[in-house]
Amino acid sequence: MEISDSSSRILAGLLEARTGQQLTLNRRWRLETALSALLRERGIASIDELITILVMGKEPNLAGRVVEALLNNETYFFRDRAPFDLLARAALPKLQERRASSRRLKIWSAGCSTGQEVYSLAMMFAEEPVKWAGWTIDILGTDVSEAVVERARTGVYTQFEVQRGLGIAQMIKWFEETPDGWRAVEALRKSVRFQVHNLLEMPPHPGEFDIVLCRNVLLYLNQATREKAFDRLAAAMAPDGWFMLGAGETVIGQTRKLVADKDARGLYVLASSDQADRRVA
């Protein structure tokens, strides 16, 4: 299916306007694949015809469906594994000491897609019940896509999805087979929460999160939009909290709000001036 340059530009503009994400030239090959199911559902013959319908404005909900289809929702359980080991080794022991009086942790997975990262975090705590007995672990997952947030809430995954990143023992312990797929057990589902949120908006709980994860999301934003997103993410952090990016991402040259943790490569902390401002506030 050939897609005109004008149609590609309109779709790229729509995605960026709604989410801040860029549809760069090297990603435009995804258009046909990403939109094929929506075209079939609506009986639309081509992407150019889809653009005509969008421009005419007769189906106001269609633009949202198009944006949902264009978002990259690639994720899996314990993705890349090493970041979770890093949190367990470097961040959580220190937080357990620092929060000993309140016995409460708040964690935000920003751009959580269909929820695998959030449930992976929940499993980390659930698999050490003695260590975290009496603690309140608040794990929030957010995404700009209403469809993936709703799916994350159900906690239902296909056989292929539930096996990506999970061993057989974990899969059987934390998921149960249902007619709709493999569903996270009730205790796991109740230990997390999800909501729709755009990274360019103010964070859900400013200054409260002990750990903020935003992995493999910001790389789709242009420089100016990425800087704004970094400001929002930093604003969510507690003064002594940690921030985590994807393996191929960095804060260097992107923001002045965050700096690398000297003791834990792969984790970031608030810059000294921001830490001081938070403590005074």
Write the layout of secondary structure elements.
Blueprint: H1 5-19, H2 30-42, H3 47-56, H4 62-70, H5 82-98, E1 104-110, H6 116-126, E2 136-143, H7 146-154, E3 156-157, H8 159-163, H9 168-174, E4 175-178, E5 181-184, H10 186-190, E6 192-196, E7 209-213, H11 223-236, E8 237-244, E9 258-260, E10 267-270, H12 272-280
Helix pairs in contact: 1-4, 2-4
* Overall structural domain count: 2
Helix content: 40-55%
Largest sheet: 7 strands, mixed
- Would you count the extended β strands for me? 10
As residue ranges, the low-confidence spans are none
The main sheet orders its strands as 6-2-1-7-8-10-9
Provide the structure class: alpha/beta
In CATH's first tier, which class of the largest domain applies? Answer: Alpha Beta
Count, helices? 12
What is the name of the CATH superfamily of the largest domain?
A: Vaccinia Virus protein VP39
Report Rg.
20 Å
CATH topology-level fold name of the largest domain: Rossmann fold
What fraction of the residues are assigned to beta strands by DSSP? 15-25%
CATH architectural label of the largest domain? 3-Layer(aba) Sandwich
Shape: globular
Mean pLDDT over the residues: 89
Order of helix and strand elements from N to C terminus: HHHHHEHEHEHHEEHEEHEEEH
Compute the separation of the termini in Å.
56 Å
Organism: Sphingomonas arvum
Domain CheR-type methyltransferase: 1-275
InterPro entries: Bact_Chemotaxis_MeTrfase, CheR_C, CheR_MeTrfase, SAM-dependent_MTases_sf
Protein name: Protein-glutamate O-methyltransferase CheR
